[in-house]
Amino acid sequence: MKRATFLLKLCYCLNLFGLLVPLALARLGSLPLFEDATTAAAALFSGLIALVLVLAGLYRIGLVVRLPGTLDAWPAVGLADALQRVGSAGLHAGAVVGLASLVAGPWLHAADALLAAQVLAMAGGIGLIGLVLFEFGRLMSFEQRARDELSPQRLRPSPAIEGHSSLDRRKH
Predict the structure, then answer these.
(1) Confidence (pLDDT) at 148
(2) Is there a contact between 92 and 7 (Cβ–Cβ < 8 Å)?
(3) Any idea where the domains of the chain sit in the sequence?
């Protein structure tokens, strides 16, 4: 089992939190704009969806913080390993970009602020891409492990119990 480092867990949580905050703020900001019942119902429905997503994200952050093996994965080869590595790099870069966008704002002059805000906004999606690639690579490593454990060689019954085993799938 490949253990997730503390830094990876921290970057994972920062990226996930950075995705949740704008979602929640966008939903809260559009609440008072009801014109009629249909608009209010649509806003309520989209608000409930956003609430479920925020709660699921906070639950995931809680799991990563509380349970030590939450982000661990089996050693993988090929595409799964590449996705985990690229996703991990994206998570780290996304955490750096997120922290830079929080810290850099007050220290920038007005002329520099627009350019910096545009660059940071464009780079902000790197964390989401890293999160998706990292989780997809982890999923593929678990699938590789399951395929290795359930390979046909392992399912073949012993010659001593041939015909008497539930694993013997030949028709009699």
Answers:
(1) 86
(2) yes
(3) 6-154
- Whether 84 and 103 have beta carbons less than 8 Å apart is answered as no
Nearest to 84 by CA among 166, 1, 169, 17: 1
CB neighbourhood size of 17 (10 A): 14
| Of 68, 92, 83, 56, the residue nearest 138 (C-alpha) | 83
Along the chain (172 residues), what's the average pLDDT of each consecutive run of 10 residues? Answer: 94 94 77 72 83 94 95 93 97 93 72 73 89 97 90 62 55 52
What is the pLDDT at residue 132? Answer: 97
Phi and psi (nearest 5°) for 133? -65, -40
Mapped onto helix, strand or coil, the DSSP state of residue 107 is helix
Q: Which residues contact 58 (CB under 8 A, 6 or more apart)?
A: 20
Residues shown for the chain: 172
**Residue 74 token pair:** 């089996």
